[in-house]
Every structure is written in structure tokens, then in C-alpha cells.
Amino acid sequence: MRARTHRRALPWAVIGFWIVVLAVTGAFAGRLDGVKHDDAIDYLPASAQSTQVAKIQKSMPGGGSTDLVLVYDRASGITGTDRAAVQRQTESVDAAYDLVGGAPRVVTAKDGRTLMVPVAIAEKDGKPEDVVKDVRALLAKDRPDGLTVQVGGPGGMEADAKEVFHSIDGTLLFGTVGVVALLLIVTYRSPFLWLVPLLVVGVASGAAMAAVYGLVQGFGLTVSSMSSSVMTVLIFGAGTDYALLLIARYRDELRRRPEPYEAMRAALRGIGPAVLTSAATVVAGLLCLLAADLNSSRGLGPTGAVGIVCALAAMTTLLPAVLVLLGRRVFWPLVPAYGSEPKKAGSGFYGRIGALVVRRPVAVLTASAVAVGALALGIGNLPGDLRQDDTFTVTSESVTAAHTLQRAFPERSAQPVTVLVPSARVQTVQTAVRATAGVASTAAGRTGSGWTEIEVYPSAVPGSAAEHGTIERLRTVTAAEHGLVGGFSAQQIDTSGTSSHDRKIVIPLVLVAVFLLLAALLRSLVAPLLLVVAMAGVWLAALGIGGLLFGPVLGFHGMDPGLPLLSFVFLVALGVDYGIFLLHRMREEVRHGEDARRSAVTALEATGGVIASAGIVLAATFTVLASLPLVMMVEMGTTIALGVLLDTFVVRTFLVPAASTLLGARVWWPGGLSREVPRPPEPTAVELELVR
């Protein structure tokens, strides 16, 4: 009687605990939006010159500046009336804002149809995005018919990006919930069961947002819209995967045990080590990002890790409690009855694949490895670094302004490079800067905090190799006078270089962390090595597919420099989950007397369906990122989704089982399960018939 009372009380106690958690955290989850930071400095390399420039500008009179370019264009040529209107508007801007560098200067293009007015507005006059919005509204007034007016420049680009980021949360949340709900309905074919994991993962998401808000307030964690968006995807993707694995094992145990409580205990014992190690690998991989120098990558680490921990906690406590209380009826109409038999072994899709693997492991391994290797060759077709005006998948006003300026002023850039120099050395530096190859003109900026700002306009197009060469030369000529070179193009150079450096540091850390965790779970060195090598191949193949899609199909002109590192962390840390589920089940089968070579087939048949469902769900959640109007999000979502699918249906279904079959008991070396290497079993008549 006491045991039965305990069985009833424990699930209710767990649910009560989570109700308290929601009551405490609910008030804080919604505040996360208010503490996000999407300024350029929050994405830049921590130690780069461009970051130092941005920080120093913040400390100068007026704080940082919102650098805009007002672009006026008339196809038939600028008229006298147009010039008068431009004069009135620039005077209005000058009167409304504290301008850095003096009154606006109007520059006329050689073709006579375009006017350019660079403007730097002190940030003390408001948030950059609000300033840009107000300036655009001001310029929309008193404008002659036929004269187009656009607000571009770095400030315009940043404002447009922030507007996109502000719209991300709702789009991402509803899109992710919709995709996960649809896939769960298809998977479970039940009018009720799909709601349970979806509601639980929603609870985990709310708890994670509150926890991250607490880290922001308590430890100064920097959270951007990108890191918050990725956290949401991770919670729904990984959390749903854990739910799929648990529910599949729980369904099997309900056929063996009369009581749901005992069935859930057995299910948790069976999948607990695999799920815990799976979550640990993701958390470890994400925390390795703390070693990165790129702010956007480093900030993503703890944010994503918190999401995974909350998903794990909810799926291993709240979900089991709810399922136990609902009992077998939650599976209606496909209720697993006590004593019923599961589907006959070898009769399903994965049973047929297992038979093929047993009969022709060498051919299966070779074919899958060649397929992955061939896809990896597409890496050579990846585009170069993403330029500022290629950031959006839709054409914003700032992008249109940039294109207009490139046509009208091919001989010079409309985007200044900022040179900061100690005020005592400004004359010497300014002379050297003007004499630098690739510099079209210079203009004086602000002075303050012991520094003087020089605006340098290169002769090359922004983002081009020629402009980058000019920036490198400027850094060389100013280094002796302790000068610093920043601005948007300099930020791009620093971001690209830092991303390359971070890959050399973080990737080995992730590989070591994942390998050690797998070795601890599987009691083997060979099995973890097999999984790590397989996932590295998946990562290369996913990037190769990106090379075939980004430019030729999607029409993107560049790739975010942080994509290789982030895609590696996610694909290795998340993708290895499925290897953990498969190999942990293999280990169970061997421990229960199954032949080491056939254990791969048995485990594949037992876990193939749930791994396929989990892979589809995870890929679909990352695909939601591809619906956002930012090229970097589309590239990340596409790469990770395709990599997950490749891992699910090629690597985990064919390559790993075939390699494990060939290795036999040696896959568990040096653990105790590797001591006996039984003779390879001959295919049974049933297996041979299935293959035919």
C-alpha cells in the first residue's frame, strides 16, 4: 500500500515543483527581450582593432555615432529645385541632431543624377534605430516629385538589421511550434499524445529564458537576438528528440509491465545514460565556445547550454510525471496493451536495412563513405565572406542606397574607414593617411578622451579585396603612432580573421570533450572515435552541400565567416546524439548476450524509427531559421538541417552499423566487451530472403 501511494504521490510532487518553477520564473522570462544587445560591438572580436575603435568612440563626446549616408537620385539628372530641397533637408537634420564632424557636405556624382550627403549623428540623441527611423520620416517630407531619397550607410544597415531581429522572436517561436506540432502528430497518430511533449518543451523554453535573464542580471552575460533565437531552436529540437526517445522506450515497457509507473522507471533506466550523455555532449560543445574570441560565438555558448539543461530537466522529470498520470490512454487509439507483442523482428524497414548490412558490410560502408566524401567536395564552391549590403534576403532601403552609391561613385567609397589616433600625433598621421595608396579623401572627425578621429574614404568598393588592402595599409602606416583602424569594413576583416583563429582553438576542444564523454558512456575508445570521425565527415559534407546551394541556387554572394565554427559545434554535439542512442543500445544488446556483430543490426532495428523521427524534428526546427530574412540565419539553418538529415539517413543508418559490424567486438576495445571476438555469424535464411 505504501509503495502504491508513493507511485501516485511522486508524479504529483514533480508537477507541483514545476508549477512553482513557472510561478517564480514566469515574471522574468518576458524580460529577456529588454536586455538583448544587437549593437555591432556585441558581435565583434573582443580583442580586435575595430572593437577597440568602437569602444573608444563610445567614450568620446556624444558617445558613439550613427553614421548615415543620405542618397538623392533622379534618373534624368538633379535639378535646381532638387538641390534647394536637399539644402533644406540637410539643414533640418543639422538643426535636429548633434552632428559629429560639422555641417553635412553634399557630394555630387559625375553623372549628375545622384547626390550623397554623409552624416554622423551623436548617439546621445537616441537609439540608432530610432534615429534612422526619424531621419527617414523627416526626409520623406518636402521632397520634389521624381526625386528618390534613401538613408543608407553603416547606421542604416544596422538599423535595418535590428528591425529584422526585433521581428525574429515571434516568427521563430510560432514557426518552430507549428513545425514540431505537425511532426509529432504525424509521428504519434494520436489526437492527444503530441500535446504532452509540446507543452513540456514550452515549459522548458520559459524556464530557460528566465534563467538566461538571471545570468544577464547577475553575471553580465551578453545575449543577442541571434543567441536567443538559436537557444529557442535548440530547446525545441533537442527537447523533442529526448521526448521521442523516452516515449518510444516507455511504449515498449508498457507492453512488458502492468503499471505505467514501473514502465516509466524502466524506460528512464534504459535511456537515461544515453540522454544524459547526449545532453552533456551538447552542453560541453557549446561551452567550448567560451574559448572563442568572437563575441557573437562566445555569448552563444552559455545561452545555448542553459537551454539544453532546461530541456533535459523538463523531459526527464515533468514529461515522465505527466505521462504516468495520464496512463496508457494517452496513446489512444494505438494503446500499448500489457502482454502484447511488438512488431515481428526483421519485418520492418530497418530490419531490411539490417539484413543488408549483415550481408554486405564492406559494400555498405564503402558506398556511404564515398557519398559523404563526394558531397564534401562542394566546399570548394563556398562563396567568400558576406558583405554588408548582402546581409539581408530582402532588399532593404539601406541596401538599395548602397547599390545606388556604387553605381554613382565608382571612384570612391561612400562608407568611411575610421582612424583613431592619439591627439598629439594627429598631424603626422593625417599626412601619412592621405599619402596611403587606395585613399580617395579624408575628413576630420571628433576629438575627445585623448583621441582624434579621421574619416578615410577609400577609392575601392566597400567589402572588396581592394578596400581590404587599403585598410591593411592604413593599419601599417598608423601602427608606429599607436593608431587604430575601425569602421564596418575593418570589422568584417577582423571578424573573418578571428573566425579562422577561433576554429583552430574551439574545434579541437569540442572533439576532445565529445570523445571523452562518449568514452565514459560506452567504456570504449574505438566506438567514440568512430562516431567523432563520422560526425566530422557529416560537417564537411554539410558545408559542401552549402557550397552547391548558397550561390548557385539561393543566389547568396557571401557566407557568414562564423558559419563553419557554429555549424561544426551544432552538428558534432547534436548529431552525435543519434550515435549515442544507437551505440548505447548496441552495448545493451551485447551485455544481454547478443553477438557483437549482430548487435548493430538489432540496435538499428530497435532505434532506427525513433532516430529517424528525432532527426526529422531536429532538422525541421533548424529549417525554421531559414525562413528568417537574414542570410546568416538562412545559411546556418540550411547547413545544420541538411547535416542532421545526412547523419540520420546515411551515417547513422548505414555507415556506423556497417563499420560496427566489420569491427565486431573490437568496437568496444579496450572495455570488457571486447575480450571475446566471436566468429562472424552467417546470414540467416530470413535475412537472405529479406535482402533479395
Short description:
With 692 residues, the protein is an alpha+beta fold. It has helices at residues 2-29, 49-59, 80-96, 128-139, 153-188, 195-219, 225-256, 260-287, 295-326, 349-359, 361-376, 397-408, 426-434, 465-479, 488-522, 526-549, 563-591, 596-625, 631-663, 685-691; strands at residues 65-73, 107-108, 114-122, 148-152, 417-422, 439-448, 451-458, 484-486. The protein folds into four domains: 1-30 and 190-342, Multidrug efflux transporter AcrB transmembrane fold (Up-down Bundle), CATH 1.20.1640.10; 64-159, Alpha-Beta Plaits; 349-396 and 508-692, Multidrug efflux transporter AcrB transmembrane domain (Multidrug efflux transporter AcrB transmembrane fold, Up-down Bundle); 397-493, Alpha-Beta Plaits, CATH 3.30.70.100.
Task: Describe the fold and architecture.
The chain has 692 residues and is an alpha+beta fold. The chain folds into four domains: 1-30 and 190-342, Up-down Bundle (Multidrug efflux transporter AcrB transmembrane fold), CATH 1.20.1640; 64-159, Alpha-Beta Plaits (2-Layer Sandwich), CATH 3.30.70.1150; 349-396 and 508-692, Multidrug efflux transporter AcrB transmembrane domain (Multidrug efflux transporter AcrB transmembrane fold, Up-down Bundle); 397-493, Alpha-Beta Plaits. The chain is 64% helix and 8% strand. The strands form two sheets. It has a four-stranded antiparallel β-sheet, with helices on both faces. Helix 7 runs antiparallel to helix 8. The radius of gyration is 29 Å and the shape is elongated. The model is unreliable at 677-681 and 684-692 (pLDDT under 50).
